[in-house]
Structure formats: structure tokens, C-alpha cells
Amino acid sequence: MAHSETTVAKMLVGNKSDLDNIRDVSVEEGKTLAESEGLFFMETSALDSTNVKKAFDIVIREIYNNVSRKVLNSDSYKAELSVNRVSLVNNGDGSNQTQGGSSYSCCSR
To answer: What residue spans carry the region label Disordered (predicted)?
Structure first.
């Protein structure tokens, strides 16, 4: 994973949590490993649907956050912002004027 895309979300999922009596890895071991690797951790059970939807929701939300962060920090996004930024000048009469000279009224009377 050293060369993975920065938008990737990683999660350690312990499955079959409903079979606690034949557990090979404790919850504490799972949490410790996940924390040391910088991963989310969750236990699930497909049998009774425990945390299955929640695990997908967390991964999807993290992917969305990573993609959003990447876009907001990209040079092309920053360049687009500076091109589309418009300075407004208040004319003092309830109308505003853009740098290009066109004016519009800010409020209806």
C-alpha cells in the first residue's frame, strides 16, 4: 500500500463477530493492529447484519473526504478559483459593479 492512491480508504474488518466462542483474534488485537497501520477497525457479522452497512458507510465517507481534499488542494482547482474570482465594488446606491464594469442590483426594493 506504500504506492497506493491517496484517495484510497483502508479498513480492517473482523468478520463473523457472531461466532465469539471460536474467536482466533481478540477485539483488542484487531484494534491494536489497525491503529498501528493507520486503519479503521470494525467487527461485523453478515449472519445478523451487525455493522455491515456501517462499515461500507465509513469507507464511502472516507473516500469522499479523501477525494474532496485532493481536489481542493489540487493546482488546477486553485487556478480555476483564481480565474473565476470576481471582485465586487459597492456603488453606494444599492448596486454593485464587477471588475469588468457590468453592474447589478443586490436587492429588490
So the answer is: 88-109
**Model confidence pLDDT, tens digit, residues 24-73:** 999 999 999 999 998 989 999 999 999 999 999 999 999 899 888 888 88
CB atoms within 10 A of CB 42: 21
pLDDT (0 to 100) of residue 37: 92
User: Rounded to whole angstroms, what are the CA distances from 103 to 22, 98, 108?
Assistant: 74, 6, 14
Number of structural domains found in the chain: 1
Residue 106 resides in a domain: no
Look-up of cell digits 480508504:
9
What is the per-residue burial (b if ≥16 Cβ within 10 Å, else e) of 80-103?
eeeeeeeeeeeeeeeebeeeeeee
- For cell 488546477, name the residue: 76
What global pTM score does this model have?
0.58
Average pLDDT over residues 91-106: 53
